[in-house]
């Protein structure tokens, strides 16, 4: 079977099924047994109930997100880059070659 039934959060599935059932009963009652209008009301009520259940900070011990039980630990977040560059360990800032040998200095212009 392609679905691992042991990994399914059955409590979450049951809670969502109850939420769908309640929204369908209310939607059908509001639509006065019109099938399309009842389905529309049911879907709108379910969407409102799901958003309330998942995102409203009600502080109740209900499942609020789908999680897998075999999920690996999240990767650590790297520290943010600093705006100030780090100073090099070598304090030398000139580019003179070792031994003081460098290009010949420019001679002054020859007056003629």
Describe the overall structure:
The protein has two helices and no strands. It has a domain at 5-55. The chain is mostly helical.
Question: What topology emerges from the helices and strands here?
Answer:
Elements: H1 10-31, H2 35-55
Helix pairs in contact: 1-2
Strand content: under 5%
Helix percent reads 25-40%
Structural class: mainly alpha
What is the overall pLDDT average?
A: 74
Order of helices and strands: HH
**Using DSSP, what is the number of strands?**
0
Straight-line distance between termini = 99 Å
Which geometry do the CA atoms define?
rod-shaped
Q: Specify the number of helices.
A: 2
Biggest beta sheet attributes: none
Poorly predicted runs of 5 or more residues: none
Radius of gyration: 35 Å
Give a short overview.
The chain is mostly helical. Helix content is 38%, strand content 0%.
Which structural traits does this protein have?
2 helices; 112 residues; single chain; mainly alpha; rod-shaped
